[in-house]
Amino acid sequence: MTQKPNPLSSIKVNGPIPAHLARSVIEETLRAAILDGRIPCGAALRQQDLADLFGVSRMPVREALRQLEAQSLLNVVAHKGAVVAPLIQGDAVETYALRILLESEALRLSVPLLQDEDIEQAARYIDELEMESDYTEIGRLNRLFHMVLYSRAPNRRLLRLVEDGLIEEERFLRFNLEAMGLGKLSQDDHQALLRAAEDRDVERSVKLLEHHLNRAVEVITRYLNSPEVRAKNTPR
Ligand code: NI
């Protein structure tokens, strides 16, 4: 049996962490390492190892892991503890069906309350997306674009769930855009969505958003069902 490399060896901790920042520092550090693949899917994260690494007690570690679990980056598995989640949890169709429900509701609540500055900001994200070829940035800008349009929804809990879904997608895009042959993502959907939001047209915005997300799930499902990807994801 070969020794697996320690997934935490890539993490640098700079000096002692003030207690009140411990949870957020651990959460941010682990999130970044999971998102850029330094800690791979399937890696198990032990609370005690993390507490030692960050020089803190297990309490903030536990809280940070719980946050990452809520963002679908970790799963808690019996006898293994926190394990880095696969790129899309379970069934992509179900994941997107849920996102469509949550995001259309957020959009419905937000569009009538949108300010001109929100529209301008969303337009800037589209411009940046047009220029960007780095997958990490594309995922981030896509999330920010969507979140601006939802941001005026008064239900903060709904917005948190919506953002968790977008973070999950961002992670998936980061690893798969190139393989999916989508190096350059068309901004047509985003442009149309922006115009509908600018007109404060709730029904049209929601329809366009559903279309946008349905199209994404089609592309992703086709990709996940392709023979190469299936072979790669079969547990050894
Ligand atoms: Ni999008």
List the helices and strands and how they pair.
Layout: H1 22-35, E1 44-45, H2 47-54, H3 58-70, E2 74-77, E3 81-84, H4 92-110, H5 116-131, H6 135-150, H7 156-176, H8 188-198, H9 202-224, H10 227-233
Antiparallel strand pairs: 1-3, 2-3
Helix pairs in contact: 1-3, 2-3, 4-7, 4-9, 5-6, 5-8, 6-7, 8-9
Bound molecules: nickel (II) ion.
Nickel (II) ion binds next to helix 6.
Structure description:
The protein is globular. The model has no long low-confidence stretch (mean pLDDT 87). Helix 1 crosses helix 3 (58-70) and helix 5 packs antiparallel against helix 6. It has 236 residues and is mostly helical. It is built from ten helices and three strands. The longest helix has 23 residues, at 202-224. It has two domains: 7-84, Winged helix-like DNA-binding domain superfamily/Winged helix DNA-binding domain (Arc Repressor Mutant, subunit A), CATH 1.10.10.10; 92-232, Up-down Bundle (Four Helix Bundle (Hemerythrin (Met), subunit A)). Nickel (II) ion is lined by residues 142, 146, 190, 212.
